[in-house]
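Most newcomers find our protein records easier to grasp once they have seen one. The structure tokens are whole numbers drawn from a learned vocabulary of backbone shapes. The record below serves as our worked example for the rest of this section.
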Amino acid sequence: MVRAIRKIKRKTAKVIIKHRKYYRSRLTAAQDKKRRKRMTAFLLGLAAILLLTPWLLCLRHKFLESQLSQEEVSVHQTLHTIANIVRRHHNGYPEYCKKKGHLLVNYPIVFTEMFKSDLIIFNTTARKNNLTPAGIMANIQREFSSVSEKAIQKEFKKLTNGQLKTVDGKAIRTEKELCQYIDENPKEWINRHQPAIKIMQEAVQSLQVEE
């Protein structure tokens, strides 16, 4: 940029000197003064353009960076929304049920299989944004594990009042029995959580649109 400015100055000076020599003898003092004013205005305008152009380009670059960062933030938030719901079903319920004396084996497998395509999109988008699915899940675990556990506990207490029954008509009255019911009826348990599942799937769809 500095070299370009110097080059323009040299060429401009040569033009001024050439024209000055040719017209000096023919111009009056007033005409020469006007000519010099016009040339000065031209040079100032040119200098302003040369100075403002890099600044405007810099602003444009910063604006584009800002727009990109906002898009990245939006994607990260969407990924964490999905991860929070996935973790509750794939990890939260098994962890809670294990504490209550029943190991969920079937439920996490069925959940993963039912939403396999959604999880693939989640994993792919995470890696495209320099994140790892395991890293996102770890963040959710660190930030929301206690909140999730309390929510599951509250949910289970509401369902162990005898109103929910097993296939053979037996009323479920303990959390361990509810865990057994979940593992034996995974699809029915997933259907009970349709609002959250819908949020997860809509979030996945938004990732596809952004791509």
In short: The radius of gyration is 35 Å. DSSP finds eight helices and no strands in the chain. Residues 86 and 200 are 8 Å apart (CA to CA). Confidence is low (pLDDT under 50) at residues 46-65.
